[in-house]
């Protein structure tokens, strides 16, 4: 058996050598397991933790209230922190190259916590670049949390900053158009105002925004990090100071992640690099075929790659949605199977139609999250759905062809 001292020595040795992303994906957040005689991480479902030392607990609660640092020893109560969720947070921080990460019940709960941290400091003004995910756009536009937003393009960020600006928010590649930004240039334009980059689409496999100057890296972990369409979660990767404030807001507002979800996310991270690379290869192939197809008007595929494609058809996009059989017609993304949806109807429906169109989200745009199926099977399904959409348009102008349909 290891003595505690030996155990510490192991940790020092293990953290000394920098490890590649693929290695971190399967080992980060699990460094202590072998020492404990475990292979799979344990799931701690406790909501409370016994302690006979209430003076000690008082001191630990005071310390949390001061810095938001994770309490030493067992957590006091599930809303303060959970060991299984902490494993996922540690692993994601390693993948994003940040000090820390703080997990929430959903991506929107994570964004809410960021806005509340800044609002609690009197910094209610947000500068943001469209497009953003529809509900992020809505949260800012509606001012539900008392924030006020100025929408601008990347070149206008520096000018849009005010003394009360608490946050600059961008997505790259953006949902749903896959528009890309120069994150380094954007971070520079922010000066001392924290830049939040939503990295949901790229994942740390393709892009690490913290290395380019983003102070906050947000994920809807519901998407690629979970990766199987069965976990809803959000996470913010950042420095320890901001993480402390996020933990305090999480404690006060309660948007915690369930430990089972934390377990599934840690497991999801272990295959993240493999999934993202395989799905990206499929997506690149499909993007090429769509771009060469006369039934398709436009294809958007990011320079950095990835498993998301956006495209516009000459025909009726609703007929493409109605026509797929292997591909699942559903909102969300980042699962092992391929999903397609019509942003103007679903993911970005809540955004005002003029704002939506102004951000490049045309009524003809379809967004597809490419999965791990065989690419020829995917193409056969898409081809049939495109044919149906194409036929529907042709039928409109030709009454004879519409008879009997
Ligand atoms: C889905 C999504 C969100 C919101 O995440 P939820 O987990 O659904 O709350 C935020 N940003 C992007 C880019 C998304 O795709």
UniProtKB/TrEMBL annotation:
Question: Key word Manganese present in the record?
Answer: no
Keyword vocabulary terms for this entry:
Pyridoxal phosphate
Q: Which Pfam families match?
A: Cys_Met_Meta_PP
Q: Is Cell cycle found in the keyword set?
A: no
Q: Which cofactor does it need?
A: pyridoxal 5'-phosphate
The domain of life is Bacteria
What's the protein name? Answer: Trans-sulfuration enzyme family protein
Please give the organism: Streptomyces coerulescens
